[in-house]
Amino acid sequence: MPQRKKAKTPWRPKQMHTKHRPGPEEEWRKRLPKKDGSNKNSLREDQVGITEYVSNGAGFTGVVKSRFSDFHVNEIDLDGKVLQLNDLTVPKPAEPTLDEEELAAARQKFREIITDDTWDKMSALAALGAKDPAAQPIDIIVTALDKTERGQIHDMLKTLYSSKLVGSTVTEVKDSTEERIIRVMKPKFNSSSEKRTRWNFPGEYVHFLVYKENMETSEAASRLASRIGMHPSNVNYCGTKDKRAKTTQKFCIKRRLPSQILTAAQKSYVRIGNFTFSNDVLKLGDLKGNRFRIALRHVNGDEAEIQKALESLRDKGFINYFGLQRFGNHADIPTYEIGVALLKADYKTVAELILKPRSNDLPFMDEVRKKWWDERNSAAAAAMFIPNEFIEKKLLDGLAKYGENDYAAALRKIPRNMLLLYPHSFQSFVFNRIASRRIKEYGFKLIPGDLVYRNKEEMDEDIIEKCDLDNPTDNVAEDIESNEDNPEIKEDAETTASDAKNEDSIFKRKVKALTEEDIVSGNYTLFDVVLPLPGHDITYPSNEVGAWYEEILAEYGLSSEKLRHKVKTFAMAGAYRKLLICPRELTWKFRKYSTPEETLIASDWDRIAGKADKIENSEGNGDLKALLLDFCLPPSVYATMFLRELLKSDTSAAQQLKIEKDEMSKVRDKQQTTEVNEGKEDAAQVESAGEVATTEKRKLTADETAEVEEKKSKPS
Questions:
Q1: 8 A C-beta contact, residue 601 and residue 615
Q2: Residues 6+ apart with CB under 8 A from 692
Q3: Per-residue model confidence (pLDDT) at position 654
Q4: The one catalytic residue among 242, 528, 537, 604
Q5: How far apart are the C-alpha atoms of 484 and 479, rounded to whole Å?
Q6: How far apart are CA 667 and CA 351, in angstroms?
């Protein structure tokens, strides 16, 4: 007797929890790290290889992301269109209707399938209430019909009975014969929102734009999935966008009503619209780039010099570094160090670095780390979490399940894309160091051995998908599907050298090394040059730069061949990335403003709400000055590195907080000085007015005295 298949446990959406806050709220808030940057132990740019500039200007003061509303990102699709939320229309499914002639023809066509007796039964069923015991389903055998013909029967039923009856096509096995049946029944719903609707849209996938504020892309996707009742991996998008920003990008979901998605969005604190339909699913990397609109506040510098710096940046570009966001939030334990341990298959060190206590951590996370570090009781430490999204929580669950010393097995609890953040961070670290040294030692001239794409059409696209670095604006998408049973991390999941070599030639031949003749021809510039991200299947420059890669890898006990990891998941094939990038469509303007809270850039939602004109056409009064920037960048290029080149200053959070604190202090001092001066002027005016009044009073008294004396002297 054949065994019954075990029913698949349906995915249950996670409940939304607030972050665990041990102790009274007042005490918890007292222990929060200060927000003035004074104690924020964040990475500096020079610690991750970011040291050089394209131009030698002095730079100027300007604060990046003083407010999240100062940073706007709009995705650019593959057709080069900047995506903007501007249509809130919710499409409704086309209702299939047949006119009398079509209906008569359909009934005649299927008269042998649906007899007069069956029609009578369906009419009687339509007249019954949904909860009437006599309202039993009616089966129509349609085994001999194809999908189109079955659809015609469904259209006929919809035309005749509207929402009174619904039909479902099911397959049943009777006497070892498979039969296809249209089962007609009363609809099972409790409200109009639950009415059963056939999929009558022109595509399997619903594409729509998502506008979010101060929220991770992965969080927006998870919230939508939770409210719709599907796994987050079924919510697709092209790339992740900044959290501290207002962003617009495209999502897609398979076969869900737009009205249902809208309801989920309203409960998820995101705005959606611009619905379209397609049979194609969105994939990471399906974009041309991003449009950025950025306000730099507290700008302090000569406008003419700033104009020159902008013109230089527009023409000469900037170094295509990986930004600080790539390397984590803590200088104590940068993510690339964990990546090194992972690439060396030192899983114990990986786990310890992830869970190790660090300075200026979140209060509750600090307690979790210290508990595990001191006691090595993973179950107890994991129990301190309420939300499950933290990577530390997943690792602790793994250690509790598989054993305190089975680090390799415990790491299986962490989703694959989360784990890949670490080795990718190391690749980015190596790229940054090589790029800085290349510029420092050879400047901006081409040298023989530099790499360029053979196909110039690929020159505008960094080939990064091979190592899953699809991260257009500062973050990497999280695949939160569980890898609990993923065998790839196991020791026996090895990729043989012969399999890998079969792929070598294609990827390595995508680039070529420049010769002296190529350089003299004038067909190439430094904007064509690419540098590799280290890997086992990559072409390195055939000059001194190529040797630098092995030197850096050797510093960390690695080599290109060792990046052919015995665990396929962690094998780093390598990638290519442009050395320099020029922004496209760069424009700018200066603007005055009065208060730090004043909105300086109109968002997509501001336009829909009719607020854009007021924001954009304001005269801009006040003593504070901002620089408004508008430009486009290719995928995987960091806008913060554009700003770094312009400002000539460190873009780390601690540095930006310090600059803003200093500038705000200057503003307060100026205001206080003005108030004091105004007070002195008022006092002087009062004193002067008093003196005038006294003089007038004395004069009046003198006049009165003189008049009395004059009267006395006259005879009566």
A1: yes
A2: none
A3: 81
A4: 242
A5: 13
A6: 47
Tokens 């009062």 belong to 686
Per cent of the chain over pLDDT 70 is 78
Question: DSSP 3-state assignment of 271?
Answer: strand
What distances in angstroms separate CA 483 from CA 124, 409, 488, 569, one per listed residue?
Answer: 52, 11, 9, 12
Across 117-121, 312-316, 413-417, least confident range: 413-417
Distance CA 39, CA 53 (A): 28
The residues, ordered by sequence, that sit 6+ positions from 8 with a Cβ below 8 Å of its Cβ are none
Q: How far apart are CA 168 and CA 585, in angstroms?
A: 53
Query: For the chain, what is the radius of gyration of the CA atoms?
Result: 34
Q: Does 242 participate in catalysis according to the annotation?
A: yes
**C-alpha–C-alpha distance, residues 218 and 233, integer Å:** 10
| Residue 568 C-beta-side C-alpha neighbours within 13 Å | 11
Which residues, at least 6 apart from 685, have a Cβ–Cβ distance to it below 8 Å? none
Please say whether the beta carbons of 371 and 364 come within 8 A. no
CA distances from 128 to 115, 139, 157, 163 (A): 21, 17, 16, 13
636 backbone dihedrals φ, ψ, rounded to 5°: 70, 10
What is the rounded distance in angstroms from the CA atom of residue 179 to the CA atom of residue 20? 54
Domains defined along the chain, listed by start: 49-69+290-317+582-695 (no CATH), 81-93+199-287 (3.30.70.3160), 100-193 (3.30.1370), 324-581 (no CATH)
Per-residue pLDDT for 55 more than 90? Answer: yes
Distance of CA 123 to the CA centre of its chain: 53
What is the mean pLDDT of the segment spanning 372-385?
Answer: 93
Residue recorded with tokens 């005295």? 705
Residues pairing with 632 in the sheet = 291, 584
The pTM is what?
0.76
At 451 the three-state DSSP class reads strand
Cβ atoms of 446 and 519 closer than 8 Å: yes
Contact 98, 155 (CB under 8 A): yes
